[in-house]
Specification:
Blueprint (H helix, E strand, L loop, with lengths): L2 H9 L4 E5 L2 E5 L10 E3 L6 H10 L5 E4 L4 H9 L2 E13 L10 E4 L4 H5 L8 H11 L4 E6 L4 E8 L2 E9 L8 H15 L4 E7 L3 H9 L3 E11 L2
Parallel strand pairs: 3-4, 9-10
Antiparallel strand pairs: 1-2, 2-3, 4-11, 5-10, 5-11, 6-7, 7-8, 8-9
Length: 230
């Protein structure tokens, strides 16, 4: 399995996983592709295994494809799996404590406002609950801007921290809310012993890329999903 694939799935874990037939299958009742996809453990694995597994669980078959898995990617394409959401992995060192403005209220669990901000992403309450359940399986800190106009999450794993769940209310975008939350979460993580940070961002999200690159994040890897067409 690709090293970054292993890291990402550890920090965004499915409810259930199993390895067989050269694949590592993740299941999380359909909540997010990242937690409901197959990861490559054997480059020669049969694509039919993926199709059968996810169809058997009532889910659309999905595979996360990383650099070095081009042969698998080609077989997936031949079987009608289409590319969805090319994604970049960005990372930075946390050798020194980032300067956070202290404008973020950080808690060990999702607050009411943290959860309310799901509405800004247009997802259903059921989907929001699924994401919270995924995050309950890791050590996470939940940050909400003091204005209530934005939120983010930091998943701590030893000296590594993953930033995820960043959302800014539409009316507050462009006002530095996300930047403040990001800096505060990185400072929190540094205080907890993290010395490296990373995040995943959809490749065509230019606004997010500007924010993260401005905060010192650089591309270290990338992946895309292959989803079976209907």
């Amino acid at each position: 399995m690709h090293a970054w694939a292993a890291r990402v799935t550890r920090d965004w874990p499915p409810f259930h996983s199993e390895s067989r037939g050269g694949w590592r299958f993740g299941l999380a009742e359909g909540f997010t592709k990242r937690a409901n996809c197959a990861l490559v453990e054997d480059p020669g694995a049969d694509v039919a295994e993926v199709t059968a597994f996810y169809r058997g669980h009532g889910l659309r078959p999905c595979v996360q494809v990383w650099p070095g898995e081009e042969a698998v990617d080609a077989r997936l394409a031949e079987q009608g799996y289409a590319v969805v959401e090319p994604t970049l992995v960005l990372a930075r060192e946390l050798t020194e404590r980032p300067r956070g403005p202290g404008a973020t209220l950080v808690s060990d669990g999702p607050t009411e406002r943290w959860t309310e901000l799901f509405a800004e992403t247009g997802v259903s309450p059921e989907w929001a609950d699924g994401v919270v359940r995924i995050l309950s399986g890791v050590t996470a800190a939940y940050g909400v801007h003091e204005s209530g106009d934005g939120r983010g999450c930091a998943v701590l794993d030893g000296e590594s921290v993953a930033i995820c769940g960043m959302v800014t209310a539409r009316a507050a975008r462009g006002r530095g809310v996300a930047g403040a939350i990001l800096a505060d979460l990185l400072a929190w993580a540094h205080d907890k012993g993290a010395r490296r940070a990373y995040l995943c961002v959809v490749a065509d999200n230019e606004a997010a890329l500007r924010l993260y690159r401005g905060a010192g994040f650089e591309e270290v890897s990338r992946y895309h999903n292959r989803v079976l067409a209907d």
